[in-house]
Design goal:
This protein is α/β, with parallel strands linked by helices and 412 residues long. It has 2 domains: 115 residues, Urease, subunit C, domain 1, CATH 2.30.40; 288 residues, Metal-dependent hydrolases (TIM Barrel, Alpha-Beta Barrel). 39% of the residues lie in helices and 21% in strands. The chain has 16 helices and 16 strands. Strands 1, 2, 3, 4, 5, 14, 15 and 16 form an 8-stranded mixed sheet that branches. Strands 6-7-8-9-10-11-12-13 form an 8-stranded parallel sheet. Strand 9, helix 8 and strand 10 form a beta-alpha-beta unit. The chain is globular and about 70 Å long. It starts with a strand and ends with a strand.
Length: 412
């Protein structure tokens, strides 16, 4: 099938994986089209008139678009906590009134509020809530979304969450899901020692996750109110020996975990709001992706990750929403990315790379995030005639449609 014509098509092909980018490096094809096969992979990209002539000659189906549209690779949100129950509006009100995120957590609020609500809810209701949130993500141009567990903290509840994510993946919502087991989110009160709980995760949760093939990724939150670096290192070594990929919640409130993430060759180190020059140097040439989560900075009233310094040092930078009920209830990847770009002085090219192919790399996915022959036909089309309007107007620039593996899934 041939899709087009698009007023502009941003391919993001032939762009480096790491380091700073200028807008001059963006390939912008005017009056363009893209062709994909029955398996949902791209077979041709270029001038629409040329592709149309070929399609007519070969009898290829044409999906004609008649309004001004800019086409991007489908957006990739590589860090979310979309599967949960309950609300933390009280926490948000307390933070607005001056309480810190850590203060609330130490007082028994925070993550444990969501854990209690998620443990109680039925799988069917949890699936319904999660489905609604994912469809909203899809309507914002996201075609690949990572979703974590971590609000169960028991074998029964963690497996319930991961099964919900797996079931939703099979529903064909138009958004490809990547699950991550975050049972090592915090130590639940049923356990008195970090190490006892981490051993429980290893033996009672991850063995079942592996057996049931519910995820191939494991995350851990390393922070003052979560897990210390020594116990995290022990845990991650065991996890890697089991064959899982790893990622780390790092340096959100204190710079204690990004070096661990690099040493362990984690796929990504996420947050990094409190990374210093020392941590930036560790990440600069590592294969570990630095994932900015501006929604968390906005949600807790903290500084942004030093994205400009990381890019200039040569790091791989991705941007994600961290969508969750506590620290980042905003969602909306484009709005968050545009705010981060203004405060950290990122180019459009750096932002688009950070929410497409660099975010895909953080998930270990090499088959998407770029519009070029051989990649997945995952696209997001925006109602505008100039790609710069997408970040300029942020949440107000509506998505016309998304395509997942060449099939139109979400149409506004």
């Amino acid at each position: 099938m041939l899709l087009g014509p698009f007023t502009q098509l941003l391919t993001l092909r032939n762009m480096p994986l790491r380091g700073a980018l200028s807008d001059e490096q963006l390939e912008v094809i005017p009056y363009a089209g893209v062709m994909c096969d029955e398996e949902g992979y791209i077979t041709a990209v270029g001038a629409y008139n040329d592709l149309q002539a070929h399609a007519l000659q070969k009898g290829i189906k044409i999906q004609t678009l008649v309004e001004p549209l800019v086409l991007l690779p489908g957006l990739v949100d590589c860090h979310t906590h979309t599967c949960f129950a309950g609300t933390r509006a009280q926490d948000f009100a307390m933070r607005m009134a001056g309480k810190s995120y850590l203060d609330i957590a130490r007082a028994g609020g925070g993550i444990m509020n969501t854990v209690r609500a998620t443990r109680k809810i039925s799988p069917e209701t949890l699936k319904e809530l999660t489905r609604t949130r994912l469809l909203r993500h899809a309507q914002e141009g996201i075609t690949t979304c990572e979703v974590k567990s971590g609000y169960g903290l028991t074998a029964e509840s963690e497996l319930k969450m991961l099964q919900v994510i797996a079931d939703l993946q099979q529903e064909g919502l138009g958004i490809d899901l990547v699950s991550t087991c975050l049972a090592a989110h915090i130590r639940p009160p049923e356990f008195t020692e970090q190490l006892f709980y981490l051993d429980y995760v290893l033996t009672e949760i991850l063995t079942e996750v592996k057996y049931k093939k519910l995820s191939n990724r494991v995350d851990i939150f390393v922070e003052q109110t979560a897990f210390d670096t020594d116990n995290a290192r022990y845990f991650l070594q065991k996890v890697q020996a089991m064959g899982f990929d790893i990622t780390v919640h790092a340096d959100q409130f204190s710079p204690i975990a990004s070096k661990l993430a690099v040493d362990m060759k984690a796929k990504s180190a996420d947050h990094l709001e409190h990374s210093t020059e020392v941590e930036i140097a560790y990440l600069a040439h590592a294969e570990t992706v630095a994932v900015a989560l501006p929604g968390a900075s906005l949600g807790v009233g903290d500084k942004f990750m030093p994205a400009r310094k990381l890019l200039d040092a040569g790091a791989i930078l991705a941007i994600a929403t961290d969508y969750n009920p506590g620290s980042a209830p905003m969602g909306n990847l484009l709005l968050q990315a545009s705010i981060l770009a203004m405060y950290e002085k990122l180019s459009s090219a750096e932002v688009f790379a950070g929410i497409t192919y660099r975010a895909a790399h953080a998930l270990g996915l090499q088959d998407r995030g770029v519009i070029e022959v051989g990649k997945r036909a995952d696209f997001a089309a925006f109602r505008t005639d100039d790609y710069r309007n997408i970040l300029y107007q942020a949440a107000n620039n509506k998505v016309y449609a998304t395509w997942s593996k060449g099939v139109m899934r979400q149409k506004a």
